[in-house]
């Protein structure tokens, strides 16, 4: 157990034995699964304090999944640190190893490498001031329409869903049974359109952007080229890297950028947004929509 997958083998064992763990041991296991890099550098007392359980709980958890104790459990994580496998700067060697790991290893490495590059290229070309300006226009407008079709339809709806936990004026378009231009019929200079499409560019998105500009909307465009008609017709244009070995353009950087944009909207908003989000989730707890964690 001295390769890249050292600690992942232990994490897999935790998930496989999850149902057999006591509620307290599950709290310890959850902390390990969510913070694996902490294991190799923490004493049993330190990690127990972070997980809000007793040190003996980690010892029992380790024994329940087949180790002699916490030190034996921690050993693979420490070995991973010594081997440098938890450091992302070493990912070139990591990807090379994956590429040699079997029939689909090359594809796996290609997909991972593309996702990492897309994130890096996207955010390298965007500065915080541009995101802040777009976020302020969103916060100060009357309503926001988020437009995506095809593979970007789910991206637009995910962004709208997240935003709607704290803000009321977000609408994902096209609505069922409608068209983007119809959904924008009564929008004007008080409103914002966030439009997403990558090559080959969808005509209904381009048409909606042009109509939105005619009606005075502020347009925020996400696309894969500075020469995209989406970027050229937007007041706020953001280029997302979407290269991938698969047929469809990658959504990784699009989702990451939308999540970042939403975080900027919350950052420039009033304290009321935080209160709304808290009330939204409190309501869900009261309605029993969330599984309660063991105390």
Structure at a glance:
It holds the Pfam family SIS. With 295 residues, this protein is of the alpha/beta class.
List the helices and strands and how they pair.
Elements: H1 6-16, H2 23-34, H3 36-39, H4 44-51, H5 55-64, H6 70-83, H7 91-99, H8 105-124, H9 128-140, E1 144-148, H10 151-163, E2 170-173, H11 180-183, E3 192-196, H12 203-214, E4 218-223, H13 229-232, E5 236-239, H14 252-268, H15 271-286
Parallel strand pairs: 1-2, 1-3, 3-4, 4-5
Helix pairs in contact: 2-5, 4-5, 7-8, 8-14, 9-14, 10-14
Structure description:
This protein has 295 residues and is α/β, with parallel strands linked by helices. It folds into 3 domains: 6-83, Arc Repressor Mutant, subunit A, CATH 1.10.10; 89-123; 126-285, Rossmann fold. The protein is built from 15 helices and 5 strands. It has a 5-stranded parallel β-sheet with strand order 2-1-3-4-5, sandwiched between helices. Strand 3, helix 12 and strand 4 (218-223) form a beta-alpha-beta unit. Helix 2 (23-34) crosses helix 5. The two termini are 34 Å apart.
Search tags:
295 residues, alpha/beta, Rossmann fold, 3 domains, 5 strands, elongated, RpiR-like_SIS, Homeodomain-like_sf, DNA binding, DNA-binding, transcription regulation
The assigned CATH architecture of the largest domain is 3-Layer(aba) Sandwich
Distance between the termini: 34 Å
Enter the CATH topology name of the largest domain: Rossmann fold
Widest sheet: strand ordering: 2-1-3-4-5
Low-confidence stretches: 1-6, 86-91
Structural class: alpha/beta
Largest sheet: 5 strands, parallel
Give me the count of strands.
Answer: 5
What would the principal axes of the Cα set say about the shape?
A: elongated
